[in-house]
Design a protein that fits this description.
alpha/beta; Dihydrodipicolinate Reductase, domain 2; four-stranded parallel beta sheet; binds nicotinamide-adenine-dinucleotide
Length: 414
């Protein structure tokens, strides 16, 4: 996902590829009444950082530079990679904070050593400052694009900044590597997004840290592939009050992500992330006759021959008028990282915008991009893709002092 994002941005700014799938680069926003015909491009409406101004850096447990890593990932064609080869080779990973107990299927040599997790966090902060200075950056954004970690639940160590820092000092087991990076970013006041399903920044200590240092936050787990389609189809069925008795989703995937997810503990993290969407969209407590007995099964099978070209099958058992059963089958032959890259870019650019607009903490308007959107404890997460898009665009209108669009539209007929 990271190398596809980086190689893609480099190719797009050279004019040799199109930013397809990116709302910040291709999307528009309607302003005012439909009769006004004001529909600027989003990137012309809000002051986003331009692609030419971006510099990339990161950490990995493998020492390969970005060109070599992109070749290993096998997503972007060699001929395109070769056209941005020099710039890709210049992106070399800094040594990682890594502990195999959180990602069982991986091991690599490019790993930091430290007295404890606090020391490792300080090393990441030093990396961040060094990167910023070397590259003359005004601002930074961090997006966790590392592997899926094992399933973890919130513990007392995650309750406050104080308890979290004590746990860092003691190298507490409840702090996985991804949290060390998130802590470092938030302490530096840097916006942070979690592109993976891990707990990472979704704990009270991180929210407190984000508020204290003015960092916007978004996550979790990029909404690509099967879940993207699920959050398009499910709102449609619900809008027409069609019942759903069963939704069976299965995937085959052969990239390194698939290999990591072959470990049951990492899969559990992904499964939880993928399963929550339907419950929140269907609201079975409000429509028990339609959705209370829904059987939702999600499977991912690691199948190396397909590489990043994931294939997903969904079987949906529907119920219509008078209880008559129907079925809907979806077979999506997608490319996981090709779907992920534009939204990694968008979330980074929007988080940077949010930071400049003085917004901090959870950015619910960026739920559009995530499988398992972060949300305030007192509200349920919004999963419906179309409501998410409306929320996102209304937030942009709000930032720029434009009227919010309610879609009421009475004025055209009065
Ligand atoms: N690829 C996609 O399109 C996509 C879509 C949605 C969500 N995701 C999620 O994003 C995450 C990454 O997916 P991917 O396809 O890019 O996987 P990947 O295996 O291609 O890349 C992950 C990289 O993270 C590195 N890594 C693991 N732990 C690390 C650590 N502690 N510090 C630094 N580097 C570390 C690995 O060495 C690997 O190079 C997964 O959780 C995945 O489920 C990916």
């Amino acid at each position: 996902m990271s190398t596809t994002t980086i190689a893609g941005v480099l190719a797009i700014r050279k004019g040799i590829a199109q930013p397809i799938g990116s709302l910040t680069q291709m999307g528009t926003v309607r302003l005012g009444k439909r009769t006004e015909n004001r529909t600027p491009r989003i990137k012309e409406f809000v002051p986003l950082a331009g692609l030419d101004d971006l510099v990339f850096g990161g950490w990995d447990i493998f020492e390969e530079d970005c060109y070599a890593a992109a070749r290993t990932a096998g997503v972007v064609e060699q001929s395109l990679l070769d056209q941005v080869r020099d710039e890709l080779e210049a992106v070399r990973p800094m040594s990682a904070v890594f502990d195999q107990r959180y990602v069982k299927r991986l091991d690599g040599p490019n790993v930091k050593k430290g007295r404890n997790k606090k020391d490792l966090a300080e090393q990441v902060i030093a990396d961040i400052r060094g990167f910023k200075e070397r590259n003359g950056c005004d601002r930074l954004v961090m997006v966790w694009c590392g592997s899926t970690e094992v399933y973890m639940k919130e513990t007392p160590a995650h309750a406050t900044i104080e308890s979290f820092e004590k746990a860092l000092d003691e190298s507490d087991v409840s702090i996985p590597s991804s949290m060390v990076y998130a802590y470092a970013a938030l302490r530096e006041g840097i916006p942070f997004a979690n592109a993976a399903p891990n707990l990472t920044a979704d704990v009270p200590a991180m929210l407190e840290l984000a508020a204290k240092h003015g960092s916007p936050l978004a996550g979790n787990d990029m909404k690509t592939g099967q879940t993207l389609i699920k959050t398009v189809i499910a709102p449609g069925l619900k809008a027409r009050l069609l019942g759903v008795r069963g939704w069976y989703s299965t995937n085959i995937l052969g990239n390194r992500d698939g290999e990591v997810l072959d470990d049951p503990e990492s899969f559990k993290t992904k499964e939880e992330s993928k399963k929550s969407a339907l419950d929140f969209i269907f609201q079975p407590h409000l429509y028990p006759e339609l959705y209370a007995d829904l059987c939702h099964v999600v499977r991912i099978n690691y199948y190396p021959p397909r590489g990043d070209n994931k294939e997903g099958w969904d079987n949906i058992d529907l119920v219509g008028w008078l209880g008559y059963p129907m079925q809907l089958k979806i077979n999506f032959l997608c490319r996981d990282s090709i779907l992920a890259a534009p939204i990694v870019l968008d979330s980074a650019l929007f988080l940077d915008l949010a930071k400049r607009a003085g917004m901090s903490g959870i950015q619910e308007w960026l739920s559009f991009y995530f499988k398992n959107p972060m949300h305030a404890p007192e509200v349920y997460p919004e999963h419906d893709l179309f409501i998410q898009l409306m929320k996102l665009k209304n937030t942009l209108r709000y930032m720029m002092g434009e009227e919010l669009i309610t879609h009421l539209g009475r004025e055209y007929y009065d």
